[in-house]
Amino acid sequence: MKKILLAVVAVIALCACNGEREYLNYRGMSMGTSAKAMCDSLLLQGLALDTVHSSETTYVLADTLACNFVVSIIHQNDTISDILEQYSATYNDSTSNLWQAMHDDFEKDFGWPNMRHSGDLHKEAFYENDKGTVLLTLLNTYTPSLTVRYSTMTTK
């Protein structure tokens, strides 16, 4: 009787684990962790909290030297919905090279993206799997910028 009970408990535990959702990883941490824990982790990695631009639903962190890199953690009740990375540069080649490197990395993880725009000055690549979505956007205009939006939302 004891063995049957253990077997039933094991099956129930296995089913419960299989129903748990997996999330995208961001810098080695699951986006399923709390927003506060993600913010604390990024602070330990050398970013600084921008208290002026942060709010009840968004933590904004930036590199401390030139503010060429900004991370926004968008959350509701400490549950992360999106993480937005913004890179700015002084010349177009640096953002183009960074876009291509990130495009190649995401392609390995997600497969070929849906290319919403594909021009010299504006490129958008949309990646999706059952863990979430990533939107990689390059704008090489007057102020070159690269934006990456990691989202826990899925359409699958």
Beginning-to-end CA distance, first to last residue: 42 Å
Helix content: 25-40%
Total of DSSP H or I helical runs spanning 4+ residues: 3
State mean pLDDT (0 to 100 scale). Answer: 84
Describe this entry's structure for a reader.
By secondary structure, this protein is α+β, with helices and mostly antiparallel strands. The chain is 29% helix and 37% strand. The chain contains three helices and ten strands, in the order αββαββββαββββ. It has helices at residues 2-18, 35-44, 92-110, and strands at 25-26, 29-30, 48-49, 58-62, 69-76, 79-88, 114-118, 122-129, 132-139, 145-151. It has an eight-stranded antiparallel sheet, with helices on one face. A hairpin with a 2-residue loop joins strand 8 and strand 9 (132-139). The longest helix has 19 residues, at 92-110.
